[in-house]
Amino acid sequence: MEKFDLFIVNPIQIDNSSVVKGEDIAQEWHNRGLIKIGKDLGIVRRILSKILSLKGNAYVIPASYRKIKVQKNEALSIAMLEHERMLKDEKRLSNIHTIKDDILWWTFIVDDIQAIENDFFPGQITISVDKLTGRIRNREEYQQWLKLSDISDNII
After folding, report:
1. 32, HSE (Cβ side, Cα atoms, 13 Å)
2. How far is CA 59 from CA 40, 73, 147, 151, in A?
């Protein structure tokens, strides 16, 4: 069965001195970054729910992403091939100008010249390369990843 971790993007907004006696607040919740939990999805979602209740924010991520397999330079080569493909499809794009080290993907940003000329905001296209597989992330994969952090059906 797949195991999961959490990535804290916004640390909790409470200090341990204001916690009710007997309530367990992990020290890692006060810092941005990966928390290696390695538990089933339900358990990790319960921890996420507690973090959210303390005004923090985090995302559930598969534990398999602890060790990335696709390094930034390899991901850039993959993104450049995708960029070339888009240019052949007659998109008017700038060169890749921003690289972000996202949680599960290397994200490369290019300006969409036509969108900018037509006042579309933000006028950019992202090319995201999965850190494990090297595949270009699509919208469906991104939505599925977001659903991992959906606690609406979790009983706390």
Report:
1. 4
2. 14, 26, 10, 11
Question: What's the number of domains the chain is made of?
Answer: 2
Q: How high is the mean pLDDT of the chain? A: 89
CA distances 120 to 60, 84, 114, 123, 125, Å, are 32, 22, 9, 6, 12
CA-to-CA dists, residue 24 to 33, 34, 50, 99, angstroms: 19, 19, 10, 37
Give every strand in the sheet of 105-111, ordered side by side: 98-101, 105-111, 124-130
| 26 and 88 co-located in one domain | no
Q: Which domain holds residue 62?
A: 4-67
CA distance 150 to 130: 21
> What's the pLDDT tens digit per position in 11-44?
987 765 555 444 556 777 888 899 999 999 999 9
Cβ neighbourhood burial of 154 (10 Å; 0-12, 13-18, 19+): middle
> Kind and range of the H or E element at 75?
helix 72-88
Q: Is 111 helix (H, G, I), strand (E, B) or coil?
A: strand
Neighbour-count burial for 8-26, b at 16+ CB within 10 Å, e otherwise: beebbeeeeeeeeeeeebe
- Residue 151: inside a domain: no
Answer whether residue 104 is part of any domain.
yes
